[in-house]
Amino acid sequence: MHDRETLGGRLARRVHARSLPPQWHLACAVMADHRNPPSGCVVREVTEVDEGLIAAMARLVPQLSRSSSPPDAVAMEAIVSSESSILLVAEDPMAPGSSEGLSILGSMTLALFRIPTGLRAWIEDVVVDETARGRGIGEALNRAAIERARAAGATTVDLTSRPSREAANRLYQRLGFEERQTNVYRLEL
Fold first, then answer.
1. Residue 60 in contact with residue 107, Cβ under 8 Å?
2. If DSSP codes are grouped into helix, strand and coil, which group holds residue 186?
3. What is the pLDDT confidence band of residue 175, given thresholds at 50, 70 and 90?
4. What is the mean pLDDT of residues 23-27?
5. Are strands 104-115 and 118-128 parallel, antiparallel or unpaired?
6. How far apart are CA 111 and CA 8, in angstroms?
7. What is the separation, in whole angstroms, between the first and last Cα of the chain?
8. In a 3-state reduction of DSSP, which class is residue 122?
9. Are 28 and 9 in contact (CB under 8 A)?
10. Residue with the larger pLDDT of the pair 13 and 105
11. In sequence order, what are the beta bridge partners of 90?
12. pLDDT of residue 63
């Protein structure tokens, strides 16, 4: 068992090493809408869990999956502290209600893991709040993840997307993703 000081030191080094450089704080594009003034957002890596994040995930996860419950604080701590996953959020720093998670407009997880054939990168659980779709938030999240994977040394990034998610599939193709001819299998446990 590791003592708290050693574990804390390792975690601090890991979080520091995983911090996004300023160029990865990508500005999200906004659509011209004369009724609402344009507002931007930044993409950042989540390094600590707070009530706003928990509230945002409670709002976003049901938009992603009807069969999965939103993660609680313990689950979020496990995600954020994991060596193999990076939780990215798109946030409007000017939005009111940040303590309620209303400033978080979308999220995604980038999984990085080593296997004998190299470092793999996998994008999972991409979700943009239904009130913020069409503003370039999904693209900004994906571009940040791609750059993070490239900087880590991955040579490819994989993801899956249901065919019914037409806008998401168009985005992935526009970003350069190519459909692979492979089978995806799942075993329920």
1. yes
2. coil
3. very high
4. 48
5. antiparallel
6. 22
7. 29
8. strand
9. no
10. 105
11. 43, 106
12. 95
Q: How far is CA 152 from CA 9, 76, 112, in A?
A: 21, 23, 8
Place of tokens 């995806």: 184
- Integer Rg of the chain from CA: 17
**pLDDT attached to residue 27:** 55
pTM of the model: 0.79
Provide the token pair at 43.
């993409």
Instruction: Pull the structure tokens for residue 18.
Output: 């995983």
In this predicted structure, what is the pLDDT of residue 41?
82
44 pairs with which residues across the strands? Answer: 89
DSSP structure class, residue 123? E
* Token code pair at residue 132: 């913020």
- Give the distance, in angstroms, between the CA of residue 93 and the centroid of all CA atoms in the same chain: 17
Please answer whether residues 139 and 21 qualify as being in contact, where contact means their C-beta atoms are separated by less than 8 angstroms.
no
From the list 45, 53, 42, the residue with the least C-alpha distance to 17 is 45
Where do the domains of the chain lie, and which CATH numbers do they carry?
15-174 (3.40.630.30)
Q: Which two tokens stand for residue 143?
A: 């571009």
Both tokens of 11, joined, read: 């975690």
8 Å CB contact between 122 and 159: yes
Count of H helices and E strands in the chain?
5, 5
Supply 124's token pair. 């999972």
What is the Cα–Cα distance from 87 to 49, expressed in whole angstroms? 11
- Chain Cα centroid distance, residue 14: 18
